[in-house]
Structures are given as structure tokens and as C-alpha cells.
Amino acid sequence: MTYHILIADPLSEEGIHPLRQAEGLEITIATDLSKEALLERIKGFDALLVRSQTQVTREVIEAASNLKIIGRAGVGVDNIDLDAATEHGIIVVNAPDGNTNSAAEHTIAMLTALARKIPQAFNSLKNGKWDRKSFIGVELKNKTLGVIGLGRIGAEVAARAKGQRMNVIAYDPFLTEEKAQKMGIGFGTVEDVLRVADFITIHTPLLKETRHLLNEEAFTKMKDGVQIINCARGGIIDENALYAAILSGKVAGAALDVFETEPFVDHPLLTLSEVIATPHLGASTVEAQESVAVDVSMDVVNFFTGESVRNPVNFPSVPKEVMAKIAPFFDLSEKLGVFLSRMTNEAIEEVNIKYAGELANYDVRALTRNTVKGILKRNLGNHVNDVNAKFLAERFDIKVNEHKTTAGKGFLHLITAEIVTAKCTHLVAGTMLNGLGARIVKVDNYAVDVVPEGHLLFIKHKDQPGAIGRVGMLLAEKNINIATMQVGRSTVGGDAIMMLTIDNRVEQAELEDLTDLADIYEVKAIDL
Predict the structure, then answer these.
(1) Residue 88 designated active-site
(2) Catalytic residue among 13, 178, 262, 477, which?
């Protein structure tokens, strides 16, 4: 049988070599298609390969009567309607690893150029000046590089910095002290990195938690004369705060490849001699472009030859009869994961998910992936999905265990999810009540009955009169309305909890005020 493949964006010939070599694949290259032309052309094709230019909308997917797989030669899939693809049984694959080396090399190049003021010296020389005194740099040897985000690229940067005989200290939500020791690097919190680093490089996704991670407050915690590199995502650095920090002398220099708004050509940062910048070139190498094309081409070949694809990004197929039974639990399973992710800031070492009652009779692996996705979303955002969740957990050395028992402990269905760190264990259990919907019924050792929606506050406190009143009074002062409240305790006069549903999200300062109240041990904000 012959499968027909449409390549709608420019890909290197070397990149599509696997497709050329495979039997039974017929390739058509048609780039720069208009929307109307693509809608007409896509009919009859079994596979579509794109980069970022072609918009694979629901309309395109519905027009593709034979389409079975979409390949994105790159990391992001923002130009592909994943929901529509999943609904139509079309698998989407991408190439998340293809630009790792290029991005790491670009970071090191920016680091070196920043330390030795190479771009500034070159511009001076081009302008006819032989000026050696103005461009005295610093050596990297024995300096401390702080790495915030130790994923694939961050780890490669750390390894290369060690080759420059730099000291490296890193923070990553999935990094443990043991892993850091194996890598030969220091381990710390974000504050530790900010406090001791001579150079700081960012390698995190852009999430709610990481937006403006380096802001005015963060700069005050850094060494005088610190230098900043960002080749990850625009928006992680507050550009106005960075501008002010450079003017004040707090920051000696910055090397930027990404910006909050791109194209980035009209900002005061670019007027500063202490700043060097490139127009988002981290993955712009011949090798990286070939690598992402090869990776996605190999997955397309694997798909049509019956092999496993390596980088799927949408939900895999589940038999209809199984889906009918487990579908009501998808939203709950993810929210249990999200809930747990907020219970600790420690690196998670193990995830245990237990299915009790009738759920034990079904293939629930899709629910397990969904729970793991909820746990990882706090730190990985949209980079984690239903398909790659367990793979990413393994990459971060998180063990995922699935257990089943028909004993429902009074519930027809019960999902219990547990996370284990080096210092603590937390669990949350949920069920679906007939006619009432989803409920959280247990948090750690406390029985509760909470609807997993909206803004929640988990408060652990001493079981004494007045604790609940003090919390209520403070929230009233902050104009935060309590919608529901659940309380529970282990023993009289011992530890107790409150679970509050509130009308609006609380800010960090308000959480700190709550924690400062008498007899309050800890407060966690959980947005579901």
C-alpha cells in the first residue's frame, strides 16, 4: 500500500531523507499554499508535514478525509489544532530534542561574548577605533554560573560551563541534591542561585510562575555586577526592571536572544552598551533544522511501518467501550494531579495512583497519564500533555506506579493519587458522586468533601478555638469572600485542616499574611 505525504513548509532534503528511503511512501512538496489551496490540496493525503508557517486549523483537518498523522518539524504545535486532530483520530508528532545542542551552544556563545564584550569591541573596530581599554572583560574560570531550569538545554549548558572551569549552581523543580551531586554541580533554591551567581542563565518554560521571574525584587537579591543571559523564552525577565538594574549598576551586562514581544527592535535596552542581543537565533543552525526534520520524518516512517512513534503530542486512541467508562474521570484525574503539585515545593521522586471500586476493572492508563500531566503542569506548562507525561516523568527520574483494587472503601469509584519526596508524602483522593459530580474526599489523612473547582485554600493549623475565626477575619479584611469551608482534624487539640473555596485568587503577600496568623502552620493556594 502507498501512503501519500504532503510537505507544506520548506524542509531540508537531508531532513526528509528517511521519507525518501522508506518503501510505500509517496512525497509531494507544495509550500507557500494559501488557505484555500491547502484546503483543496490536503484531500487524499495520509500525512502532513509542516513547520510554523502553515496553519493546520480545524477546517483543514476536516477537509483531510484520509489524514492519519501530522508532523511538526520543531518544538511548538501552536499552529496545529490538537483538539480537532484528536477528535478525528489523527496523531500529531513533533521534534522536541532537535534544537537542544544548538540552543545550548548559542547560550555558551552569548555567555562568552558577554564576558569578553566581543560585540561591543567589534562595533568599535568597525567604526575605525582601536580601543583596547574600553573593553576589558572578565574570565569565566572560577566564576559561578547560576542555571535556573535544568531540563535538556539547561543540563547541556551546565556541562559546557564546567568545561570552562566554572562553578555551577542550579535550580529546577525536578532537581534533587543527589542528582546535582551526580552531575557535579551545586544544588539550591532560586534564591540561592540569585544570591551567589556571577552569571545567571534562564532555561525554563514561560508559565504563570516564571513570567517576570527576574523582576525588580529578584535583582535586589543578586550580587552587584551580575550578568544575565536569556536564550529560553521572552517574558521570563521583566525587561523594564532589567533596564533599571543595568542603569543602577546592579547588573553589569545582559545577553538576550528572546524577548517579551517579538520582533524586538524598539526598546531602551537596545540602547545600552552593556546589552548584547540576537534575534531569536537559538535554534537557527543548519544542523538543528535538519535534526528536527529528521526526527519528525522518522516518526512518520515509524507510524506507517507499525513502529512506535517517539514524540506524540496528542491523546492516543482508547477503545470506545473503555472511553465510555473512564471519560467522566478525565477532568477529576488531572485536577488531583494539579492539587498535589501545590502541596510541596520539593522535587517529586515517586507518584502512586490507586484505582478502587469499579474503575479497577478497566484499562485506566489514560487516567494515570492525565494525573501525571496535572502534577507536571505546574513546572512544564503546555510542554507536558496526555501522551508524553509519563515519558517526561521518567526523564526527571520520577517513578510512576499504578495500583488497582476492587475494594472501594464505601465508594463506587475512587482515585487516590500520592506523591513522595525525600522529605514528605502527600495524597489526595477523589470520586464521582451520582448526580453531584466530582468530589475530593480525602487530603492526606483528613476526610473532606470538596468540589474540585475554582480557587481553593488548604490551611493546616493547630486545633484550637479561634483559628477559623482569625482566618475568616483576615480574608474579610482583604475583601476575599469564602464560598465554602470544610474542616477536619486528626485528634482533639492536635493538627487540623481547613479547605476553603474562595471567590478570587489570593496573591503571595496575602498567603504570607495568613501564614503569620497564630496557630497556622502552612497555607497552600490551589487553583483548579
Answers:
(1) no
(2) 262
Buried b (16+ CB within 10 A) or exposed e, 426-438: bbbbbbbeeeeeb
Question: Is 262 tagged catalytic?
Answer: yes
Measured distance CA(300)–CA(312) in Å, rounded:
11
Q: pLDDT tens digit string along 476-486?
A: 999 999 999 98
Report helix, strand or coil for 27.
strand
Which long-range contacts does 183-189 make (Cβ < 8 Å, 24+ apart)? Answer: 183/155, 183/158, 183/159, 185/147, 185/158
What was the pLDDT predicted at 391? Answer: 79
Least confident piece of the model among 108-112, 180-184, 320-324: 320-324
The phi, psi pair for 318, rounded to 5°, reads -125, 135
- The DSSP string of 427-478 is EEEEEEETTTEEEEEEETTEEEEE---SEEEEEEEES-TTHHHHHHHHHHHT
With 90 as the cut, is the pLDDT of residue 24 above it? yes
pLDDT of residue 382: 75
Q: Which residue has the cell 522518522?
A: 298
- DSSP state for residue 13 in the 8-state scheme: T
The active-site residue out of 17, 212, 280, 455 is: 280
Q: How far is CA 527 from CA 283, 286, 465, 504, in A?
A: 34, 43, 28, 10
Highest mean pLDDT among 118-127, 313-322, 383-392: 118-127
Burial category of 183 from C-beta neighbours within 10 Å (exposed 0-12, middle 13-18, buried 19 and up): middle
Question: Which conformational region is residue 16 in: left (phi greater than 0), alpha (psi within -120 to 50 degrees), or beta?
Answer: alpha
Q: What are phi and psi of 261, to 5 degrees?
A: -125, 125
State the Cα–Cα distance between residues 438 and 237, nearest whole angstrom. Answer: 39
To the query of whether residue 203 is one of the catalytic residues in this protein, the response is no
Catalytic residue among 41, 51, 72, 233: 233
SS (H, E, C) 150-215: CCHHHHHHHHHHHHCCCEEEEECCCCCHHHHHHHCCEECCHHHHHHHCCEEEECCCCCCCCCCCEC
pLDDT tens per residue, range 200-211: 999 998 888 899
Grid cell of 103 as nine digits: 540552543
Identity of the amino acid at 507? E
pLDDT of the residue at 501 = 94
DSSP-based three-state secondary structure for 107: helix
418 three-state secondary structure:
strand
The partner residues of 276 in beta bridges, in order of sequence, read 255
Q: How many CB atoms lie within 10 A of CB 132?
A: 9
Query: Residue 506: how many CA atoms within 13 Å on its side-chain side?
Result: 28
At residue 319, does pLDDT exceed 80? no
Distance CA 403, CA 184 (A): 36
The pLDDT, as a whole number, for residue 142 is 97
Query: Coil, strand or helix: which one is 346?
Result: coil
**pLDDT for residue 355:** 96
Grid cell in block for residue 157: 549548558
8 Å CB contact between 202 and 213: yes
